[in-house]
Write a structure and sequence with these properties.
- The complex is a heterodimer.
- By secondary structure, chain A is α/β, with parallel strands linked by helices.
- Chain A has two domains: 154 residues, 3-Layer(aba) Sandwich (Rossmann fold); 64 residues, no CATH class.
- A six-stranded mixed sheet of chain A has the order 6-7-8-3-9-10, sandwiched between helices. A four-stranded antiparallel sheet of chain A has the order 2-1-4-5, covered by helices on one side.
- In chain A, a hairpin with a 2-residue loop joins β1 and β2.
- In chain A, α3 packs parallel to α6.
- Chain A starts with a strand and ends with a helix.
- Chain B has a single domain, classed as Orthogonal Bundle (ABC transporter involved in vitamin B12 uptake, BtuC), CATH 1.10.3470.
- In chain B, 72% of the residues lie in helices and 4% in strands.
- Chain B contains eleven helices and four strands; from the N terminus they run ααααβββααααβααα.
- In chain B, the strands form two sheets. A two-stranded antiparallel sheet of chain B has the order 1-4.
- In chain B, a hairpin with a 2-residue loop joins β2 and β3.
- The longest helix of chain B is centred in the first third of the chain and has 31 residues.
- The radius of gyration of chain B is 19 Å and the shape is globular.
- Chain B starts with a helix and ends in a 14-residue tail after the last helix.
- Classes of the chains: A alpha/beta, B mainly alpha.
- Chains A and B meet through α2 and α3 of A and α6 and α7 of B.
- The complex binds adenosine-5'-triphosphate and magnesium ion.
- Adenosine-5'-triphosphate binds next to β2 and α1 of chain A.
């Protein structure tokens, strides 16, 4: 279980996160939705350790991990698919996937997980010797997801996986997210595509200018008048 | 023809030295986008360490070179930790100015300890002092050693960068620090390792220059340093093969101008090349012309 408790994050004078609290229970899909600049990415970056909060704490399975490095958090089972995919463009698909398993030493386990990733994303197997930068946007998203799975995470953060993808591909990505969750990985999903996110989420949080303003089950929020107006286009 | 081949051999020897130094510039630039002006002084200190090993401890060339490489490795890591790491989030110009400061500190600090005078490396004896003729071209054993050592170090470097875990981390960090961090890569220690590698190569170059040209002084790094930097830019700054190609190219051009034209112009020609490259193909010979992301 991941618990974010009252974190505040500043960039210089900008107060980007204000007392943000959220909980991601094991086995669930939790989504964090909100408009541009609301602070969704900052929340994930802080939870991954890339950004230090000015106050508040982050707990993983009850253990305070606020002061730990991103490396330590990867080891503890946190993995992130960052906004914009951020694949290592001049390295091959296979090298990217192997980097996902950077901290692991169990050769057999890595080989097994690689096979699973290829099974889930067959296109990556076809392209494994190709430079990641030459893949299409959708393929890069799959690579970024595969790479994040190679650390065998307990909890996976996804930052706008549908960004810039054609509707058909968005559906495919969301189906895969569901499968990943069903095979035992907890998911924290950041999305601007609120309707899609609310469909698959067990629980949802809505963020506005650095604060959580609403939360509830996915079904509740998709019925909420406020949400419909603000995020679901009527 | 014979003269051309002779210049070719001389150019390859000089180019080897430039390539070894250029690799350090290019690796550090590749990973933290810094032109490490202090790099040429690491090379100078490598030359002094080698000098001390050979003169005072009467060690052979190879052990002296290895000791110089080890000393430079530590020096390079110390420079990074003390001078650059605290500035990781500072503006690039602030880091650049710091690099200039470190460079001067090393030059004049060294001068304080060893005096400004030029020192002569002990001359080689035995087989290393020999030279032989191949079809009218005179090749000294030292030239063979320089070229061989360079090639061996380059192969070793390629192996580290392409095949090892830490090499893979280096490439990942140079492409995207945040993404690398999310893979569980320790960015700080990877940067430190990059300085270590580059500095070790500079240390080797320092000792090789010492035995080849016989004379060293605390400011000896400046000109070769700038030329090696030109070599790195020529090949494409940030690209390891670029530094190798650039190093040999600059060494070759310099000896050819020296041999066929006028030795007074050889330095000017190198800088003319830098200007030309920056105008025509700023990304360098092996680089792709992309605009730098801010
Ligand atoms: N490195 C940074 N330096 C300064 N301000 C930043 C930085 N990163 C984010 N911010 C600010 O913090 C706020 C939240 O940004 P964040 O990227 O977390 O939003 P977001 O919800 O992910 O938006 P989007 O949906 O556009 O990705 C914004 O006002 C942004 O300008
Ligand atoms: Mg974002």
């Amino acid at each position: 279980m991941l618990e974010i408790k009252n974190i505040n994050v500043h960039f210089g004078v900008i107060h980007a996160l204000k007392d943000v609290s959220l909980t991601v229970e094991d086995g669930k899909i939790v989504t964090l939705i909100g408009a541009n600049g609301a602070g969704k990415t900052t929340t994930l970056r802080t939870a991954s350790g890339l950004k230090k909060p000015t106050s508040g704490s982050i707990l993983l399975d009850g253990k305070d991990i606020t002061a730990t490095t991103p490396q330590a958090r990867v080891k503890m089972g946190i993995s992130q698919v960052p906004e914009g995919r951020r694949v290592f463009s001049t390295m091959t698909v296979l090298e990217n996937l192997e980097l996902g398993a950077f901290l692991r030493r169990d050769k057999d386990g890595i080989a097994k997980d690689l096979a699973t990733v290829y099974e889930r994303f067959p296109i990556l197997a076809d392209r494994k010797r190709q430079a990641a930068g030459t893949l299409s946007g959708g393929e890069q998203q799959m690579l970024a997801m595969g790479r994040a799975l190679m650390s065998r995470p307990k909890i996976l953060f996804l930052d706008e996986p549908s960004m810039g993808l054609a509707p058909l591909l968005v559906q495919e990505i969301f189906d895969i997210i569901k499968v990943i969750n069903e095979t035992g990985t907890t998911i924290l999903l950041v999305e601007q595509n609120a309707s899609m996110a609310l469909q698959i989420a067990h629980h949802a949080y809505v963020m506005e200018t650095g604060s959580i303003v609403l939360s509830g089950t996915g079904a509740e929020l998709s019925q909420s008048e406020e949400i419909k107006k603000a995020y679901l286009g009527g | 023809m014979e003269q051309f081949l002779q210049q070719l051999i001389n150019g390859l020897s000089l180019g080897s030295i430039y390539a070894l130094i250029a690799l350090g510039y290019t690796m550090v630039y590749g990973i933290i986008k810094l032109i490490n002006f202090a790099h040429c002084d690491v090379y100078m200190i490598g030359a002094y360490v080698g000098y001390a090993c050979m003169t005072y401890f009467h060690l052979g060339l190879l052990p002296s070179m290895l000791i110089a490489m080890a000393a430079c490795t530590l020096l390079g890591m110390a420079i990074e930790k003390i001078a650059y790491k605290p500035l990781r989030n500072a503006t690039r110009i602030a880091v650049l100015i710091t690099a200039l400061g470190v460079s001067m500190f090393l030059e004049y600090g060294t001068m304080f300890f060893v005096k400004a005078e030029v020192r002569a490396y002990p001359s080689m004896t035995g087989w290393m002092a020999q030279s032989f003729q191949v079809g009218g071209v005179n090749i000294s054993m030292l030239q063979v050693i320089i070229m061989a050592v360079t090639v061996i170090l380059m192969i070793l470097l390629q192996f580290i960068v392409k095949r090892t875990r830490v090499g893979r981390a280096m490439r990942a960090v140079s492409l995207d620090k945040d993404a690398a961090e999310l893979m569980g890569i320790n960015v700080n220690s990877t940067i430190s390792f990059t300085f270590a590698l580059g500095s070790a190569l500079a240390g080797a170059a320092g000792v090789l220059v010492g035995v080849y040209y016989n004379s060293i002084n605390p400011l000896m790094g400046m000109l070769p340093g700038i030329k090696a930097f030109v070599a790195a830019v020529f090949g494409g700054i940030g690209l390891i093969p670029g530094a190798m190609v650039g190093g040999y190219a600059i060494g070759m051009i310099e000896t050819m101008v020296d041999g066929y034209g006028n030795s007074l112009y050889k330095d000017a020609v190198v800088f003319a090349i830098l200007i030309l490259i920056l105008i025509v193909k700023p990304a360098g010979l092996l680089g792709k012309n992309t605009r730098e992301k801010v």
